[in-house]
Amino acid sequence: MQQCGIFHETYTEDMAIFQTPFSRFWMGLFFVFLAIFPFISKPINAVLGTNTLYLANLIGIYIIGAHGLNLLTGFTGQISLGHGAFMGVGAYASAILTMKLGIPFLIALPLAGLITAMVGMVFGIPSLRLKGLYLAIATMAAQFIIEYAMRNWTTLTGGSAGMSVRPPSFFGFYIDSDRSYYYLIYVFVILATIYTKNIIRSRPGRAFVAIRDRYLAAEVIGVNVWLYRILSFGISSFMVGIAGGLWAHYVLVISDEHFVIWLSVQYLAMIIIGGMGHVMGGIYGAIFMVLLPELLRIPEHYLTVINPNAFAIFHSLRDGVFGLIIILFLIFEPDGLAARWHTIKNYWKLWPFSY
Amino acid sequence: MPLLEMKDVYLHFGGIMALNGVSFGVRKGEIFAIIGPNGAGKTSIFNCISGLYHPDRGKIIFKKKEINKLSPHRRAQLGLARSFQNIELFKGMTVIDNLMLGRHIHMRTDLITGGIFFGKARREEVRHREVVEEIIDFLEIQNIRKKPVGTLAYGLQKRVELGRALALDPNVLLLDEPMAGMNAEETEDMARFILDINEERDVTIVLIEHDMGVVMDISDRICALDFGVKISEGRPDEIQSDPKVISAYLGGEEVV
Ligand SMILES: Nc1ncnc2c1ncn2[C@@H]1O[C@H](COP(=O)(O)OP(=O)(O)OP(=O)(O)O)[C@@H](O)[C@H]1O
Ligand SMILES: [Mg+2]
User: Fold this and answer.
1) Which residues surround ligand 2, an ion (CB under 5 A)?
2) Which chain A residue has the Cα nearest residue B168?
3) DSSP 8-state symbol, B174
4) In this complex, is the C-beta atom of A325 within 8 Å of any C-beta atom belonging to chain B?
5) A13, A180, A184, B78: which has the fewest Cβ within 10 Å?
6) HEC states along A181-228?
7) Does residue A46 belong to any structural domain of this protein?
8) pLDDT in tens, B49-91
9) Who contacts A320 (Cβ-Cβ below 8 Å, separation ≥6)?
10) CATH topology classification for B1-79+171-256
11) What is the signed CA dihedral for A83, A84, A86, A89, rounded to 10 degrees?
């Protein structure tokens, strides 16, 4: 239970992320779980009939990208339909840097992030003039331009044949199993989450939110709105580029069809469902996006036992069900899971006097 | 030499001349009021000064520099702050965060140091938080400091907006109808804050206000505007007895 009244003696305490011993305790427990998950995933896999470690890794990669998009769309209020392609830029950049130029993974990955940031900032320039739907169209154009480049710049990307990538290795470690990759990814997930949280509670994050809520007032109090709009594209693309790099060295073969507009839409759906403008939003959204198709697979599995044709029928229904669930979410939880969680938490905080 | 000066400023919207050759100078340290009937062009003057509107003609001079070409955020950095007629707070943010945004121009934390939030960035955050808390104490809004401003009563929001402008540590503070919609007690508080800010913090104030009692009470000089034209300028007693001002207000409010 969280305390009702929290008193702080210093501003530093007041600014702390985990305000009570209670929340620190649960956070600690959660980190223990994260740390031992790869060792307890085997029995869980057996029960669920799926590779949960692989799913956890996917979730981790998407969390990093979703944090990025959340900074741009949730916090700065600039929509992007290009983040699928930006993830591709990160993936290809890291692949090319390591495979063609022989740059070590630990240097190539941040470089890939920087390259993606550059690309994102260039395609973010229309945001200085365009907002809302118009910006959505402009970033969608970025998506298609980058897709085209990935497909046709064959000397660099290998075209539709794709490109094979080596697993990362550094300091004598060879990260080539689900388990070792899990730890690599989650180091980045934790860094990305702390980074996002820190940005939001300090000067640049406040400027982002100010631009989202009232950009004229933001300008009048001295925020360089143009600069921050572009910076938001930069940092957002950087993060999704890192996600792309991590993805490339995990799946080991990348091709343009991974980074199509559907991925951009999925990223948007993640932060909308998870909660735009909440740091936890990217996390909840990524979990939801990866696990929902898996959950939809379970009834499929059992129906097949009853009727072999059910698989084919249900499989084609699945995309529809997927879409339907997302629509229901938008109707009933328009503020996302993170906001719902807040409501529940506040309810219990004051229980039994909550009304 | 005035601290802030408008020189023959023209501004039109379609067929309307919002400002028709307006000139005036605000001296350092004074409370300068702009009065006039609805639609006279008062808010347009503020928007020209803060850079939201661009005059067709004329100069705006601040600290001896022509600032016509500067973008709004550069003008804020130079020492101009304002409040808005229709409150322009960041509604979802807490009072503290709104005021911290007022400190934006005085802070340095960027996407790298802010992301690490350790050492320098955190010290800076604490230091400016102290400034903000001092303003919160000054405006007597301690009990609402962690509330999202959108949930606050109108009068309090006006006060928070004043606080945000104050957080910029401006040389000149432009206040657009800070007392509008307030009851007598709130109006009196606001007048006291404005006087304190002017005297103790050494801030020059330009005030747009319809409450003539307050205007006559606290301003050093007044400029009266009608249909985008300055019709009079002077001390409160001079304005009160100026027949042009009285006739401009006939049918509107009484000049007391
Ligand atoms: N953005 C705008 N677009 C079109 N017309 C405008 C705009 N801003 C101001 N005007 C017009 O310019 C004139 C002056 O408006 P302004 O807001 O400066 O008046 P004001 O003196 O502040 O009035 P009030 O006392 O009602 O606030 C009005 O006729 C108004 O309709
Ligand atoms: Mg006005």
Assistant:
1) B 43, 85
2) A221
3) E
4) no
5) A13
6) HHHHHHHHHHHHHHHHHHHHCCHHHHHHHHHHHCHHHHHHCCCCHHHH
7) no
8) 999 999 999 999 999 999 999 999 999 999 999 999 999 999 9
9) none
10) Rossmann fold (3.40.50)
11) 170
Domain ranges of chain B: 1-79+171-256, 86-169
The protein residue with its alpha carbon nearest to ligand 1, atom 5, reads B13
Nearest CA in chain A to B73: A222
Longest dimension (CA), chain A: 67
Cα–Cα distance for residue pair A44/A50, rounded to 1 Å = 9
Which amino acid makes up residue A56?
A: A
Q: ipTM of the assembly?
A: 0.92
B33, B74, B178 from B205: Cα distances, Å: 8, 19, 12
| Residue in B15, B78, B75 with CA at minimum distance from that of residue B47 | B75
**pTM given for the model:** 0.91
Best of B44, B209, B253 for a ligand 1 pocket test (most atoms within 8 Å of beta carbon): B44
- Give A285-294 pLDDT, tens digit per residue: 999 999 988 8
Residue B112 neighbours by CB under 8 Å, 6+ apart: none
Residues near B116 by beta carbon (within 8 Å), at least 6 away in sequence: A198
Cβ <8 Å between A11 and B88: no
- The dihedral built from the CA positions of residue A334, A335, A341 and A346, taken in this order, carries a sign that is negative
* Domain interval for residue A294: 51-350
Q: Tell whether A259 is covered by a domain.
A: yes
Q: Which amino acid does the sequence have at B238? A: E
The CATH number of residue A244's host domain is 1.10.3470
